[in-house]
Design goal:
alpha+beta, 4 helices, 9 strands, 202 residues, two-stranded antiparallel sheet
Length: 202
């Protein structure tokens, strides 16, 4: 959840200091489609003050974890983890679950199924232009919202999140792939029956 080394903490976008009401991660309640935020600087039982790391919730018990791949900071290793994956001090970190913004047209279950297709992959990553903020927004809304000269910049050309997802996009099709700006495609995993059954916990 929170990067365990100072170097890794620097690899997530630094945003303006903000305070959000929350609880400790061990007790925070979330469900599929939520975004869970935790401070990058570990202060067990402390206030929920940014900058934050973000993870996407697939269900009430599963989260999609992004970390820079070992040996290659320009790639992210994507894993599905449970709440118990996080040990001390992470599980006692302040945290909050953020619901999707309905004005941005969240994609709901499509994002959850897509997240399951990403699990186990190594995909392009950049600490400022293709990070946890961009990935969680993409899974929540089917697009990213970065702006130039802001603390949440646009995605880079190499980021694989350029293909927008809308109401007609079939994310479960084997032909669906992520794309960067140059239309390079990224093969995804096929879904299993248990991936669809897991939506019952949505």
């Amino acid at each position: 959840m929170v990067y365990l080394s100072f170097y890794q903490r620097l690899l997530c976008t630094v945003i303006s200091l903000t305070i959000v009401r929350g609880t400790i991660f061990k007790k925070v309640k979330f469900e599929g489609g939520d975004t869970v935020i935790v401070p990058l600087i570990p202060i067990p039982f402390g206030p929920l003050i940014g900058p934050y790391h973000k993870v996407f919730a697939l269900s009430r018990t599963e989260l999609l974890q992004l970390n820079p791949s070992r040996g290659n900071i320009w790639m992210t290793e994507i894993k599905i983890v449970g709440r118990n994956f996080y040990k001390f001090p992470e599980r006692y970190q302040p945290a909050a679950a953020i619901k999707p913004d309905p004005t941005r047209q969240p994609i709901g279950q499509k994002g959850i199924l897509l997240a399951r297709r990403l699990a186990g992959l190594h995909l392009p990553y950049h600490s400022f232009t293709c990070n946890c903020y961009h990935y969680t927004d993409y899974l929540t809304y089917g697009r990213t919202f970065g702006e130039k000269w802001s603390t949440y910049p646009p995605i880079s050309d190499a980021c694989p999140l350029h293909l927008r997802i809308n109401s007609t996009t079939n994310v479960i099709s084997r032909s669906f792939q992520l794309e960067d700006k140059k239309n390079n495609k990224f093969q995804l995993k096929s879904l299993r029956l248990q991936d669809f059954l897991a939506l019952k916990e949505f």
